Amino acid sequence: MVKNRAMRYGGRLLALSAAALGMVAATALPAAADDGPTRDQLIADCDSGKGKCSFNEPVLGEAYLGDFRQVSDSLYNCSSSAATQSMGWADTVGSTDSAGVSVTAGGSLAGLIDLSVTATYSHTWSSSHTENSSLNMTVQPGEVGWISRAQVMQTVSGTWQTHYDDRQWGHYYWFVPDTITGPAPNGTDGKSNAVIVKSREMTAKEKASCSADSKQGKAFVKSH
Question: How far is CA 108 from CA 46, 85, 98, 115, 199, in A?
Answer without folding.
Answer: 7, 43, 17, 11, 41
